[in-house]
Structure formats: structure tokens, C-alpha cells
Amino acid sequence: MTDAAPVLFDRRLLATRLARARTLGPAPFLLDRVAEEMAERLHAVLREFNAIADIWTPGHALPPERFADVVQVGIDPSGNEALNLAPGSLDLAVSALALQFANDLPGVLAQIRRALKPDGLFLAALTGGDTLTELRQSFASAEAEIEGGVSPRVAPAADLRDLGALLQRAGFALPVTDVDRVVVRYDHAFALMQDLRRMGATNVLIERRRAPLRRATLGRMAQIYAERFSDPDGRIRATFEIVWLSGWSPHDSQQQPLKPGSAKASLEDAVKGLGTK
Fold it and tell me: For the chain, what is the domain count?
């Protein structure tokens, strides 16, 4: 019996902040970029996808005008991560900017793998550990200077190698991971923070600081941000790291790795051959 995954995220708060973002007027530029990139990646796959599920995306992982009849699987505010997808029912499962909020990512990946038909595809994008690194560094410096300590603002993020291993552990064949870094410029840190509120992307860690942020700390954070991460024109930079994951449900038609010892030529012979040229 394995231990339960730690609960890192306040999912009720996440739902509340996503709802608030819709009332503020959402800032969907990052999700729009990911959705377009996802559509392009799928366009390169020479096959039809009929039964499609979108897992937890705060919007649409695929442009609705290009992909019809997509089942939207919403995130459960209670923290329940059961996806309730029938085994072997999907040709394609996608997710955009959502799986970083999974308390049990290995478990969610395993559920998606079981829901795919043989030779079904999983494609997802989630935020990586370098996302908003400038803002996090500026807040940490300001809090240490003004308040003598640093509060939790970001959950640990798995690196590419770890995520590839998680895909294999979940039973996916031909797993692939890669990273896209997007740099967005703002007039000042407060404009960035307003966009984050309109994206529903503010801190929802269970262990987050509950006391209101001090005005002096907030002001010092903005100063540090401008000092360390601004361009010559005075505008600041904000990095968003997008990690892409893909994998297939195993099928006999897929390319298989060579069995150990099955190569017809040895590495030693190849090296010797290079020396004779």
C-alpha cells in the first residue's frame, strides 16, 4: 500500500479565483498561445481523432472552431482527482495549463492512460519551474529584507527527465517532453500581477501565507523587480515556461525499441571503421 499524495493546492480557492478572473475580464493570451500550438502539433499527426477529452483546462485546450465534440472534464474543487473516464474510450486526451495543480500527477496520468484506446494519444502543456522566476525572486528578496523571512509562493516542479519517467511509469509508449519559454513584457510589476489575477494564476498553495501582504513589501518587490529584470526602455520581463508532454497508449503497430544484443554491428566495429577512413 502506498502513501497518499500530499495535498499541495487549495482547489476551492483555485475555483474561486478562476471565477473571479472571468468577472474581471480574462487575460487568455497564454492559453490562446498554447491552444494554437497544440492544434499545430496535432495537425502534424496523420490520423483522425474522434473521441476527445479535455482534462481540467481553464477554457479550451483546442480551438473550438477547429475541434468539435470535445468532452470537457472540469477540475473538482473538493480536491477529488478521479476523472471518471471510461477505460479505452478516447482517441485523444489533452490538457492545457492545468496539470501543474494536480496533487497526485502520477495518478492522474495513469487514469488518462487507462482511458485511451490502444494507439490513443495524450498531449498536454503545463507550467514549469521557471515560470515567473523574476516575480518569485523579487518577492523573496523583498520579504527577506522587510519582514525577515520568505513565505511559500510556488510548488516544487518536476524537471523534464522526471516528467518523462512519470509518463513511462503511467504506461505510455513513445513519451516525449520539451519546453517552450515565453517572455512577456510589462510596464511594471503591478501590471503583471493584474494579468495574473485575470488568469486565475495567483498563489493557491495550502501552505501559503494567510496574512495580508504588507504595502511596504509590495512596493519594495516592485522596486527590486525593476532594478533586476527591466530592459533598457524600462519595461520588465516575465518568463512563462511551458512544458509539453506527449505519449501514446501502447499498440503493436508502434515502433519498438531494439532488444539488447540484437544489433547486427557492434559499437567497437563502428569505431574501428571510422579510423580507416
Answer: 1
